[in-house]
Request: fold
Amino acid sequence: MQRQPIRPSRRSKRPRRVPPSRRRAGLAPLELVLVLPLLMMVLALMINFAHQVAWKTQAQTASRQAVWRQRPTHLAGSRDRPPRNWEPPATMSVATAPPPPLFPQDPYDNYSALRGPVLRDPQIGGPTAQLQVDRGLLQLNDDLVQGQASINREVVLLPRLYQIAFDVKHPLLQSEWRFHDLGYGDNQERRSLKLYSYLPGPEVTQWGLETQRAFLQIVQAPFRPALAILDKDQELAAWFGSPPDFHPQASRPCVLDRDLVYRTVVQPLIDRIQGPQGGGRGGVPENMAQTFIRMYREQIAQLMLQNPPPQAQIQALQRKIDELTQFLGTLN
Reply:
């Protein structure tokens, strides 16, 4: 008896399970296509933001350079080239209109020494003789200047979306309030001489008007052209290079007593002009004559070096020397 082969039973076919990762593999390209524009937009905005920050930094630098390079201590900087890449239409300048004050309220307003009232002179005590505080000497907002830099240009990516536009201002206080900036020649000078101004009485004002009239009479005098020889003689200038100044200098006392000024300033000045004896000896006449004699003698010595010497010119110069020597003999 033969055995029949055992045939495997037929089983129902079941669907094979697919892993989730392999199930979504076909959607990845589609997702990339959908997300890519958004990613490119974000990337463009990041690049534009960095570009915008860089140009704002350059605008701040340009505004600072515009105001700093025009300071009195750095006048050569006004000819410097603009910063790199800061070419037209970008601009950099110093504002012509005064900028808004940095200090709306003066912190020194309550200091009587700086912003005090009119003070009466304790030595004179008169109602018209006063010391007035110079309120504007230490104004914090004075000499305030402002640099300005402007730029308007397209962004690197998506230029139709927006543009870069900056208008940056940089204020600067010009004055450093050093002693020579306030008008002092020396750091040891008294500050009160600048801080307080003297309001003179009516008699001092009258003296000032008289002095002004005397000055105008001298300037407008018809004989003034004849005095040009004192410091503008062309013959002396041609020989010595610059004309000597024969004007005697007068001192400048800080007093209001006219008699004292005459004794200490006017009379000594007259003595230096006319000489101690009043006849010109030791004064301006003798000094001018000796200067011309020295010039003519130097010219004669130079002519004597020629071969042959020009006798006519030498004799003409010698006659001038004789005339001046004769003039010196009349001085006493």
Strands lie at 91-94, 119-120, 130-133, 144-154, 163-173, 196-199. The chain has a mean pLDDT of 81. The first strand starts at residue 91 and ends at 94. The CA atoms of residues 275 and 283 lie 4 Å apart.
